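FAQ: What does the model actually see?

It sees only this:
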Amino acid sequence: MIKRNPILMLGIFAIIVLITAQFFIIREVWNQKDEMLSLRYRSNSQDAIGSMRMRRSVDVYDTVRFILDNYSEVVINELASITDSLELENKKQEIFDFFSYTLNTEQDLSVYLTDYFRRQGYEDDFKHRIEIISLDLIDMDTVHIFQDEFFRTQRLTERSQSSSPPDNYSKSSILVYRYALMDNYYVLFFEYYIDFSDKQKMILRETSASLATSIISILIVMTIFLFTYRNLMQEKRLSNLKTDFINNMTHELKTPLATITVAGKTLEIEKIRKDDSKIVETARLIGKQSVHLNQLINMILEISMWERTQFELSKKQVDIESLMHDIVDCFKNGSGDTAAVTQNYDFKGIKPEIDTVYFTTMINNLLSNSVKYCEKDPVIKIEGYVEDNNIIIRLTDNGIGISRNDQKRVFDKFYRASSGNIHKYKGLGLGLYYVKKIATAHGGDVILSSKPGKGSIFTVIIPYKNQTEYESSSS
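And it is asked to produce this:
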């Protein structure tokens, strides 16, 4: 089960709240800009109509009036002669469609508004739409008005209470004005709408500053949170590593001290003092544990030295193949006597400049880890060769392996790969850290390839100068 981080969850919650608040603010600004744009074009349209009526002697609906009046005179007589209800309904639909079509195609208001908006510097790319509210036909011979509900899309008194477009209209439609036309044979009420196809873009341009400010503020808050959270997690990780280091070091120091204490008390026993072999065995044990204790103390004292970004190397030319054999032989005679080590070198007799002390420490740490982190008889294969002016040393073992997540941090100081929260193997988390530092100090690097249960492959790469370069640098 994944453990939830309360700090992370709180930060995510705060960011979600911020984004939600910004969303509602932007939506409110958008709606306000939408209303202001509609009001602006409605007001300008009405100004244009008022100006048109003052300056023009010809009404923009003159052609419409003439066509609809002649048409109404004809259809009134046709309606009076129709007796079939279905045929009557079809005729009414035909009349309504003709009125709507004539209003939308024969009026000159749209042309005038386009020219007016262009002269005023406003957007002039719009579509118009006229909706008939009510239509009454008048029979002049009988002075009879055909007030049929079919010709009323909605009561005029109800429509007059709202400036919003009908539900079947686009949300970008703007009601310009309501108007009435009447002539000898009809009375007509309608609404005139204009619809900007890029109204959303127009609003976006006006709200771009607010939108950009909101997005930038969210990004800044998220960046600050992530930066702070990363630093916090880094500090927490370092604190945990140092705590683990102190606990491990305490345990490591107590082990040889306890052994030396027990051995000292053993020598106080009279029976042991009379047995020379026991005295020698106990003395060797004390000596061995004293050496181990001294190594631990020296390691602690040297930590400050390893903290430096660069440390001084005492390089000298050495036969790398002979040095590798010496390191491995000493290791096998010491703590690595249980390991089966095979060596295969092809260094072509080169003698690179390296610091033998640090180099030995690096190889020993790799060998020690191969033995320590192995649950069966250790089998270690060491290969060495030259490639592209680089010394390549590859160490392959049959240990427990390292998981992909641990591989990213295994070279960090104090870091130790673990199973859950339990460290199964003893150690201080410094071995591979030293390996990396030594390799980089020589201008090289260490590459790790590993799979849990399949062992690990450590590849050390150290650049070297050829003999000609040595001679030229010496001269």
